[in-house]
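ok trying this again, last paste got cut off
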Amino acid sequence: MHVELDEPKCVASGQCVLVAPEVFDQRDEDGIAFVLDEQPAEEALDAVREAVAICPAAAIRLVRR
């Protein structure tokens, strides 16, 4: 599985970082999220799915490659 984040859609809420800190982080200057690990381990996928579900901007996708 591959994590995609549409940075222009991000509203810097930080919810993804709270639920999956091993996969997401935020830039210090503006709070916009970015992906640390585009292909997270299987055990991190539940947290990524939660991040997808709670992202207020719908800026995160988990895609099969």
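PB: full thing came through this time. The radius of gyration is 10 Å.
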